[in-house]
C-alpha cells in the first residue's frame, strides 16, 4: 500500500516528433516479476462503468501505447488506452463532480497471485489523465461475473490508496498486502484515461487444481514456476520461455546477444515446488538463424547444493520442438538450462508431478495467503 516514485503534475502538450521523448518513468523494484495481468495468462478487463472514448480492453495490451496525433473518430480523439467521458455535476449551480465521483474497471488476473507492485501508465494522456487513481483487490473462487464482484457483501482490500498521478508517465506503486488475489478494481478519480495497467507479483496456484492434474508442466508461469536469474536479457526476457502456449513470433521467446567470448548463456528456474520431472520439451519455434546450438539441463533439490545433469549437452534444431523422456524421474526444486554458445529458445516445459513434501508446502502456502 506504499506509493513509490510516481509522477504528479501536468504533462506538457504534445509538441511533435517522438511522442515518448518527454515520457516519465523510473526503475521500479518489482518489474522483474511476472505481470499477473498479462493477456497471455488469461487476464481480461471484464467490465467498466464507462468507456466512451477508448475501450477498456486496451489496458492490458502487451505492447507500449501507440499515439497517432491525426487519428480521430466520431466521438473525438482516438486513444490507445481506456478513456471515459468528462464527468459533470448535477446542475448549473453544481457543475463539478463530487469528491466521491469516479470511474472504474474490473480486471481478472491471468493467474491468481500475490501483488508486489502496480504500474498505472498514462502514456499520451496529457490533458485528459485522471487526477488520482486507486486500486482494490479481492479473491473469489471460480469465474465470478461483474455482478458477483460488485455485490455489496464482497470485501475489497485496498492495494493503492487514492493517490495523485501524472500524465504521460508510468506511475508506480509498491504493494505490501501479502495475500492471494484474483481480481482488481481500478478506479480513476474523477474521470479521464489510462493507457496501460501492469500488475507485478508472484503466481499462487490452487493446490487442489494441480493435484487433480497429476502430471503437469512444473515450470509454467500459470502453475507457479518462475525465473530466478538469467545470463542475458538483451532482446527479450527469460520469462517468455515459460509463458502459456507456443511462441507466435521471434521476440515471443528468449534470445541473447551474440557472444564474442568463450562462455555460454543460461537461465536459472524455480519449479512451483519440489517435484519429480519425467519429460522435457525444448522449443525453438520462430528462432531460425538464431536458435541455441546446444542445450543442457541440470537440476537440484530444495535447499540448493550441487547441480545434477538431467539432459546432457544436446544438439538443437532451428524452429523445432524437441521432446525428451527421461530414463528415470528426477527429483528437483530448481533447474538450470545452459545454451551453447548463445542464441535462444522459445519455450521450456518440464512435465512431472509434485512430491508429497512439495504438495504439503504448497498447500500450507495457499492457506497462509488466504486461498
Name its key features.
single chain; 371 residues; mainly beta; nine-stranded antiparallel beta sheet; 3 helices; 22 strands
How would you explain this protein's 3D organization?
The protein is mainly β and 371 residues long. It has 3 helices and 22 strands. The strands form 5 sheets. Strands 1, 2, 3, 7, 8, 9, 10, 11 and 13 form a 9-stranded antiparallel β-sheet that branches. Strands 14, 15, 17, 18, 19, 20 and 22 form a 7-stranded antiparallel β-sheet that branches. A hairpin with a 7-residue loop joins strand 18 and strand 19. The longest helix is centred in the C-terminal third of the chain and has 13 residues, at 356-368. The two termini are 20 Å apart. 42% of the residues are buried. The model has no long low-confidence stretch (mean pLDDT 95).
Structure summarized in a few sentences:
The chain is mainly β. The chain is built from 3 helices and 22 strands.
Amino acid at each position: 500500500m506504499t506509493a513509490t516514485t510516481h509522477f504528479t503534475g501536468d504533462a506538457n502538450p504534445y509538441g511533435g516528433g517522438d511522442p515518448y521523448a518527454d515520457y516519465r518513468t523510473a526503475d521500479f523494484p518489482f518489474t522483474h516479476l511476472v505481470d499477473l495481468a498479462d493477456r497471455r495468462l488469461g487476464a481480461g478487463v471484464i467490465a467498466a462503468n464507462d468507456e466512451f472514448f477508448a475501450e477498456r480492453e486496451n489496458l492490458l495490451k502487451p505492447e507500449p501505447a501507440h499515439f497517432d496525433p491525426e487519428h480521430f473518430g466520431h466521438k473525438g480523439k482516438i486513444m490507445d488506452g481506456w478513456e471515459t467521458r468528462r464527468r459533470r455535476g448535477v446542475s448549473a449551480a453544481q457543475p463539478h463532480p463530487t469528491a466521491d465521483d469516479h470511474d472504474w474497471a474490473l480486471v481478472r488476473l491471468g493467474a491468481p497471485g500475490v501483488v508486489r507492485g502496480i504500474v498505472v501508465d498514462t502514456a499520451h494522456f496529457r490533458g485528459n489523465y485522471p487526477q488520482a487513481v486507486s486500486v482494490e483487490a479481492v479473491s473469489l473462487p471460480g469465474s465470478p461475473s461483474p455482478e458477483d464482484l460488485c455485490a455489496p457483501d464482497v470485501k475489497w482490500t485496498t492495494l493503492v490508496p487514492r493517490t495523485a498521478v501524472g500524465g504521460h508517465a508510468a506511475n508506480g506503486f509498491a504493494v505490501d498486502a501479502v495475500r492471494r488475489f484474483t481480481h482488481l478494481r481500478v478506479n480513476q478519480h474523477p474521470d479521464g484515461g489510462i493507457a496501460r495497467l501492469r500488475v507485478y507479483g508472484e503466481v499462487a496456484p490452487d493446490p487442489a487444481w494441480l493435484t487433480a492434474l497429476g502430471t503437469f508442466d512444473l515450470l509454467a508461469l500459470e502453475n507457479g514456476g518462475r525465473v530466478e536469474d538469467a545470463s542475458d536479457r538483451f532482446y527479450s526476457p527469460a520469462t517468455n520461455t515459460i509463458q502459456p502456449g507456443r511462441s507466435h513470433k521471434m521476440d515471443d521467446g528468449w534470445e541473447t546477444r551474440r557472444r564474442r567470448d568463450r562462455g555460454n548463456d543460461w537461465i536459472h528456474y524455480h519449479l512451483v515446488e519440489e517435484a519429480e520431472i519425467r519429460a522435457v520439451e525444448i522449443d525453438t519455434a520462430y528462432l531460425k538463424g538464431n536458435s541455441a546450438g546446444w542445450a543442457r539441463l541440470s537440476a537440484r533439490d530444495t535447499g540448493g547444493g550441487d547441480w545434477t545433469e538431467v539432459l546432457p549437452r544436446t544438439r538443437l534444431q532451428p524452429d523445432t520442438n524437441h521432446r525428451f523422456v527421461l530414463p528415470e524421474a528426477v527429483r528437483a526444486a530448481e533447474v538450470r538450462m545452459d545454451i551453447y554458445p548463445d542464441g535462444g529458445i522459445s519455450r521450456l516445459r518440464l512435465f512431472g508431478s509434485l512430491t508429497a513434501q512439495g504438495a504439503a508446502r504448497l498447500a500450507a502456502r495457499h492457506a497462509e495467503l488466504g486461498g
